[in-house]
Design brief:
Blueprint: H1 2-10, E1 17-19, H2 25-33, E2 39-40, H3 43-49, H4 60-73, E3 78-81, H5 90-102, E4 107-111, H6 117-131, E5 137-141, H7 144-147, H8 152-169, E6 173-175, H9 182-191, E7 196-199, H10 207-212, E8 217-219, H11 223-236, H12 247-255
Helix pairs in contact: 2-4, 5-6, 6-8
């Protein structure tokens, strides 16, 4: 419970929190040794590290085993991205979370993806009703910008509508990957009552600009994994790797084994 309370508290600070996402015990130990206040998995990175593409494709048993290895080295709060819960059954998701909480996690990301908001709304309500209001931090991820599932002229309106639904359902934080416009972020943060999380793709992006715009949590998703493994690709080809390793390339590698860079 102490880690859970600490994780909640750092979301309320004026200077926010920066999470460099991890995918295995080694990456978690390294990030933690560098002074990380909390450790967060990236669903894409964790799936790739275990031989699966991103997109709810990884078996639950593989996820649980991977989180167990990460948790074993964590001394700081651990939050896990569970994609859409790997199921649309609230009962299945609760069973998964029972197992993950027993391993020591204190937070989750859970996303709407391509689904209507009512699907994630029901999942959040079920999780909150089952686990109460303190033991698990629910970071509700809205993918309208990331997936481009709405026309540009209505995307921001749809985003706000969905975030309100998720907040009312019991979310503790709101995650909007794909939204990087500082003016829109500033407008959104002024309307929200819950901490806002955005995802940056490079450590060169000025974190302070986003904190100043009202962001309380910055994460990097698969960017850290891609940077590390692009380095491996270059090392293995004596600095002659021709392809930049990005999300699409890595997901294809896991979907169609044997492709070369």
């Amino acid at each position: 419970m102490e880690k859970a309370l600490k994780f909640r508290e750092i979301h309320s600070r004026a200077d926010g929190i920066v999470l460099l996402n991890v995918w295995d015990a080694a990456s978690a130990a390294i990030v933690q040794a560098q002074g990380a206040e909390a450790v967060a998995t990236s669903s894409a990175s964790l799936a790739w590290a275990n031989g699966y593409p991103d997109g709810n494709a990884m078996p639950v048993e593989v996820l649980v085993a991977a989180v167990g290895r990460i948790s074993r080295v964590c001394k700081v709060p651990l939050t896990v991205d569970i994609e859409a819960g790997y199921s649309d059954s609230e009962g299945d998701i609760l069973q998964l979370l029972d197992r993950l909480i027993s391993l020591g996690i204190v937070g989750i990301n859970i996303e709407d993806g391509q689904s209507e908001p009512q699907v994630l709304e029901r999942k959040i309500q079920a999780i909150r009703n089952h686990f109460g209001s303190e033991s698990l931090f629910i970071n509700a991820r809205c993918d309208v910008y990331l997936n481009g599932i709405h026309p540009k002229d209505s995307c921001f309106t749809e985003l706000k509508r969905r975030l309100e639904i998720y907040a009312q359902a019991g979310a503790d934080g709101l995650f909007v990957p794909g939204l990087l416009d500082l003016a829109l972020i500033n407008e959104l943060s002024k309307e929200l009552t819950l901490p806002l999380n955005v995802m940056l793709s490079s450590s060169e992006t000025k974190q302070a600009d986003y904190i100043a715009a009202g962001v309380k949590r910055i994460s990097y998703g698969p960017a850290s994994f891609l940077a590390v493994y692009e380095g491996l690709g270059k090392f293995s080809k004596q600095q002659t790797c021709e392809s930049k390793l990005d999300y699409a390339v890595m997901n294809t590698l896991m979907s169609k084994r044997g492709q070369t860079l």
